[in-house]
Each structure stands twice: as structure tokens, then as C-alpha cells.
Specification:
The protein is of the alpha/beta class and 332 residues long. Helix content is 36%, strand content 16%. It has eleven helices and twelve strands. It has helices spanning 34-47, 62-74, 99-113, 132-144, 170-180, 203-209, 249-254, 256-268, 275-284, 299-307, 315-322; strands at residues 3-6, 11-14, 18-19, 51-53, 79-84, 86-89, 92-95, 118-123, 148-154, 187-191, 213-217, 290-293. The strands form three sheets. An eight-stranded parallel sheet has the order 3-4-5-8-9-10-11-12. Strand 3 (18-19), helix 1 (34-47) and strand 4 (51-53) form a beta-alpha-beta unit. Helix 1 packs parallel to helix 10 and helix 2 (62-74) packs across helix 3 (99-113). The longest helix is centred in the N-terminal third of the chain and has 15 residues, at 99-113. The chain is globular and about 50 Å long.
Length: 332
């Protein structure tokens, strides 16, 4: 697989990564099977999808434990990215950016992952009670201690309640400017897909101008852009899509023209090219510093996603995808 670099440290990863969250968190619990997920991780590494993205809160903790089973055997094949800063409680999630907690959390992640170093340690969310510089400073100390190779920040996009004229990622850009004064940012992770392109306006150009890697979260639109979901089929109560404003039966039906557009482009590239691969190829085409991190928990989907690295979209394809109607949600 094609390789791409993350940040000034030129950390090398496969062009398509693997988001491990669905294996343990946020999606239908009845379909989560540990052994099947372990095979999926092995398959990703076999295909060159070396970036494995997880977080201590996924499970919580069980996602890192699952990856640790693979890393114990194949650490040299993987680029490990995990996150810190969020605590999962009973029916709630809270931020914790206290320096002492960050250092303890890193040690715990290293134990669960069965490794002595984390390639990319990301701040999941800034703690509103702790200056972000203090949290970032503690993370920088982990780099100097040899426990972490590089630091990243997860972007926060707030769709509602913004002041007039404010950009979706203005708050994240302010955070990035502050932490850059403390220690270099190697990567930013934010949602980016055909149906959520907002990062293209300011956040991705900011990263590109500074040589910062961009990890595209949810590049398949939480599964919608695969074209495999049926409007009205419903989701299990523990699946986050059961409460997502774009996943009501009405909105899934309204957004079908996006899937139709992906299918049209896929059809021009051969019978074996899928809408999901076109969606990922669109993300890859947004810049050499962009690495999509699609979530998957089965070997079949991991293989399909990795195949997107070989799909080369034409100028016509990109223009057609850019002209697709904007995604609709129940807030619209």
C-alpha cells in the first residue's frame, strides 16, 4: 500500500488506516466479537493498513486490550495511535486533563496495548477546568520520557450554538495555536467525508500549511456511505446511530442521492469498485497529508477499505462528488 507521512517527524503509515472503535464501542454490541476483530486487525496489517486508531475510553479499556493481543505478536508492523482525556462513567463522559492523570493514563494504555511506546498520543478532548497548555505539557513530557513518539489533537466540531459567522472548527484552531507554543502537533483528527466536508474550509488547510498530518475520522459517514444500510431498518439501542440526526429513516431516505452519486463514480472504475472505496478515495484525494481512518470490525470490510488506496479518481469524478447535494439531518 502507498505510504503517507504524519507531521514534521515524518512518521510513515499506510495511506488507509483502521479505526478500531466499532470493535468495542458505540456500534451494535451484539455484533462485536473479539476473535473476529482480532482477525480483522491482522488482516489490516497484512494489507499495509498500519495505522491502528483506538482510545482508552473505547470499552472503556477493552479496545486497547484487544489491540494488545495483536501487538504482542506484531508490534513492528503497526503504527499505534491512542487517545487520552475522557473518562467514561455511568451514563456520562467527562474530560480529565490534569497532568498527573495524563501520565497515569499513558502508563495504563502502554500496559493494555502490550507495548513500550505509543506512536501517536492524541488529546481526545481538552478539560475545561485545566489550561490546555498544562495538559499538553504533560503529554510532551511523555515524549521526552520515550513513552510516546508524537502528539495529536482531536478536533471538536459544534454544529449548534455557534455565534453568527463562526466556523465549525474555530475553537479547535484556537486550541491548536495554543498547544503549538508548547510542543509540536504532529496530527489532527477530525471528521471528513463526502457528506461531512466542513474540515476542508479551514482546519485541513491550517494543517497542510504547517506540515501537520490529518487523520480523517468517520470517512464512511458512520457506515452510510458504504451503501449497505437500509433506511428504516433501525439500529440497536446501544448504537450511536440510533440517536444520530442523519440516521432517522426519513433522513436516510433523503440522503440516498449521495449514495447514487458514489455508485455512478464507482461504476466508471470497474464492477469490483464499491461506493465505500470511492468515498475513501475522495478523502485520499484531499491531500498527501490526509489519512482516512475508517472503522471496521470484520476482515471483509478491512480488505475493501484497504483497496481504496488503489482507486484513482479523475477530475471529472472529483467534480461530480463535489456537486453532490449536502447531507440532511433531522435538525434541517
Amino acid at each position: 500500500m502507498e505510504r503517507r507521512t504524519i507531521g514534521a517527524a515524518a512518521l510513515s503509515v499506510g495511506a488507509v488506516g483502521l479505526g478500531c472503535m466499532p470493535m468495542s464501542w458505540a456500534y451494535s454490541g451484539s455484533r462485536q466479537r473479539g476473535e473476529e476483530s482480532v482477525r480483522a486487525v491482522h488482516r489490516a496489517l497484512d494489507l499495509g493498513s498500519t495505522l491502528l486508531d483506538t482510545a482508552d475510553m473505547y470499552g472503556p479499556f477493552t479496545n486497547e486490550l484487544l489491540l494488545g493481543r495483536v501487538l504482542k505478536e506484531r508490534r513492528a508492523d503497526a503504527f499505534v495511535s491512542t487517545k487520552v482525556g475522557l473518562l467514561v462513567g455511568d451514563q456520562h463522559i467527562v474530560a480529565n486533563g490534569r497532568p498527573g492523570y495524563v501520565k497515569r493514563a499513558c502508563d495504563a494504555s502502554l500496559r493494555r496495548l502490550q507495548t513500550d511506546v505509543i506512536d501517536l498520543y492524541q488529546l481526545h478532548r481538552a478539560d475545561p477546568e485545566v489550561p490546555v497548555e498544562e495538559t499538553w505539557g504533560a503529554m510532551a513530557e511523555l515524549v521526552r520520557a520515550g513513552k510516546v513518539r508524537a502528539l495529536g489533537l482531536c478536533a471538536v466540531g459544534v454544529r449548534g450554538g455557534r455565534r453568527a459567522g463562526a466556523g465549525l472548527y474555530d475553537g479547535t484552531l484556537r486550541q491548536l495555536q495554543r498547544v503549538q507554543q508548547v510542543f509540536p502537533v504532529s496530527a489532527v483528527q477530525a471528521e471528513l467525508s463526502v457528506w461531512s466536508p466542513e474540515a476542508l474550509r479551514s482546519l485541513l488547510p491550517w494543517c497542510e500549511a504547517r506540515g501537520i498530518g490529518f487523520l480523517a475520522a468517520m470517512p464512511l459517514g458512520n457506515g452510510f456511505l458504504t451503501g449497505t444500510l437500509t433506511p428504516g431498518e433501525g439500529f440497536e439501542p446501544d448504537d450511536m446511530r440510533a440517536r444520530h440526526p442523519r440516521f432517522t429513516a426519513e433522513m436516510m431516505a433523503a440522503n440516498q442521492p449521495i449514495i447514487a452519486g458514489l455508485r455512478r463514480v464507482a461504476g466508471r472504475h470497474g464492477d469490483d469498485v464499491t461506493p465505500a472505496q470511492v468515498a475513501l478515495a475522495w478523502v485520499l484525494a484531499q491531500g498527501r497529508h490526509v489519512v482516512p481512518v475508517p472503522g471496521a470490525k470484520r476482515e471483509r470490510w478491512v480488505s475493501e477499505n484497504a483497496g481504496a488506496a488503489g482507486v484513482r479518481l479523475t477530475a471529472r469524478d472529483l467534480a461530480e462528488l463535489s456537486a453532490l447535494p449536502a447531507a440532511r439531518g433531522s435538525w434541517d
